[in-house]
Amino acid sequence: METNCTAILLQNLSIDLPIYLRKHGLPSIEHCCGKNKLLGEFYGLAISEACGILDYEVTKTLTEISILMRAYVVLDDFIKDHKLAINTYKLVQALLAKLQDIVISMLETIGEDGYTIWNKYLNIYENAFTDYLSATPYIATIHKCFFLFLPFDLAVVRHARKSSNHLKTGVSDFLFSLQLLDDFHDMEEDLQAPRNQNLFTVRVSPEKRTSVIEGKSALAGHLLDYIAIHMQQLIKKSTGSNTFDTFVEAGLRWLEYTKSQLQAGTMVNPFRFPYKLFRFDDPIVSSLEDTLASIPKINTDIICAEAMHTLFRQGAP
């Protein structure tokens, strides 16, 4: 029986918290948990497929951890990129602290050293801003989302029947492509943020940033071509995950459609790229329902709801 994740979340969560998040302009519950997103609701399933994991409880645990780690990255990124009122800032800080405690506890229930793993990933994640100025753009991007790779470090994945290395590489490339689209779209906005981690401007001197932004339209088509090449390469490689391949194929269809609109001059605003997972709900490209139809269901709606209910069950701090 299929269920509506949003409805379940709102039914189980503190009635005040979702309203509070919306009222103060914070990321929504759906965005935190990655509803209908590869790097969210379907991440645990993709990892299980690639590793040949057939145990439902293991897949459920991987999904829960993935959702909670995503929520941490989303909320932490938000708090660092926006100037918030003191009460709102304290709320997000409290949610992050709760997330940390819950994830560490979950890791320990599956035989992991929760604090050691958490601190390992936190150290790399917290140094991501420095990486943006020193490391290659690719490495800097991966470190910015490094918590999303935590499931690959767990014994249930490392000791699985099949290696997850191909999927891990694929996820890295997928993340980098998303970040390129995100940063292209937010080029001007990121310059006003407390910290600028935009791949297109972070290494450019202030006096040259204007020319970079003014040349944006000429760059659009080349950017889409560059990302499409990466998507095509990912499709050719075998990650062992039908879920991952489905999202990549849908992304490639969106890229091809968007490029055709640019070439025809029919795209009203070429800079409003649907960068959040290529907006698979665009009916012209492929409806979200059609895109996800081939993905085997493990009732991710229930898992998603349970994971976020664990996070927010006590309501707003």
In short:
The protein is mostly helical. It is built from 17 helices and no strands.
Helix content bin: 55-70%
Give helix and strand order, one letter per element, not per position: HHHHHHHHHHHHHHHHH
The percent range for strand residues is under 5%
State the shape: globular
Number of strands: 0
Largest sheet: none
Q: Which residues form runs of ≥5 with pLDDT under 50?
A: 1-15, 274-288, 311-317
Number of helices: 17
Number of domains: 1
Radius of gyration from CA coordinates: 19 Å
Structural class: mainly alpha
Mean pLDDT: 75
What is the terminal-to-terminal distance?
A: 34 Å
Question: How would you characterize this protein structure?
Answer:
The protein has one domain (5-312). 66% of the residues lie in helices and 0% in strands. It has helices at residues 5-12, 16-23, 29-33, 43-51, 56-81, 86-109, 114-126, 128-134, 137-144, 155-158, 165-185, 187-191, 206-214, 216-236, 242-264, 288-292, 300-312. The longest helix is centred in the first third of the chain and has 26 residues, at 56-81. It is mainly α and 317 residues long. It has 17 helices and no strands. The two termini are 34 Å apart. Mean pLDDT is 75; it is low at 1-15, 274-288 and 311-317.
Q: Which SSEs are present, and which pair or pack?
A:
Blueprint: H1 5-12, H2 16-23, H3 29-33, H4 43-51, H5 56-81, H6 86-109, H7 114-126, H8 128-134, H9 137-144, H10 155-158, H11 165-185, H12 187-191, H13 206-214, H14 216-236, H15 242-264, H16 288-292, H17 300-312
